[in-house]
Amino acid sequence: MSSIAFSPAPLPLRTHAHRSPLLPPMAILRHLTLHHHSHRHHCLRRRLAVAAAAVRQDTTVWTPAPLSLVEPAAESLFQVTVDLSDSPDLAASHTLAGQYLQLKVPDFEKPSFLAIASPPSLASGKGVFEFLVKSVAGSTAEILCGLRRGDVVELGPVLGNGFDVDRIQPPEEYSTVLIFATGSGISPIRSLIESGFSASKRSDVRLYYGARNLQRMAYQDRFKDWESSGVGIVPVLSQPEDDWKGETGYVQAAFRRAKQIFNPLSTGVVLCGQKQMTEKSIEIVVP
After folding, report:
1. 3-state SS, residue 142
2. Which of 13, 133, 274, 286 has its CA 20 to 30 A from that of 105?
3. Residues of the chain with CATH 3.40.50.80
4. Pick from 45-49, 67-71, 133-137, 248-252: least confident
């Protein structure tokens, strides 16, 4: 099975993993810290490593850009649009769905890693980056969601290799594509769908999208367009409203209940969301 992964944790064999925008930049460094016989030397080495990381971060090229839109997209989620009309080089550097960057807001030093929700064509055509931002108390994201049109933020360079769509090409050979996403993980999935990966030429492309309830489910206004492009949408609610008639529980459980018949040799899988979801989904779909 060919799989594309966009997850905060390393994935098992037979999947393609890359760093997530959800990971703090120090996570990799901590794993690379060497062990020493002397505790004192170990602590000193750790402090030096942290200091070196700070120096590297200070060398990041930051591009100031104004916000053109900040509006609610769902409960606790906001759509944030950054105007890049004065930064065409940065806009042009977004070439693949699944890429991400760092964003800083005034008077708050710690940057936030954000997946770019808009397709690359939007950056090159309209000169904007769009993000789906979850407001978390005390974070850069919370401050960002409280800003207004015209406020200036700073963007780092576009990072990551994006989704390796070539692994599920040509569509005739990978006729089935299963997409699993939860919460704000739908953000890079939007970029993937709207970038186009020949969904209409495949026999079955299905997105299982999990959220707590309908109020927490973003991009509902885009579902019809996504379906018209060849992507079937299966909303899954973990705490549904009383009148909800659709799927409930976890996305991987909803997929299991569907008892979908597919050929592993001609199936691709896209994952974006919580670690437990990605692991459980892989257990189900990877023979």
Report:
1. helix
2. 274
3. 2-18+162-285
4. 45-49
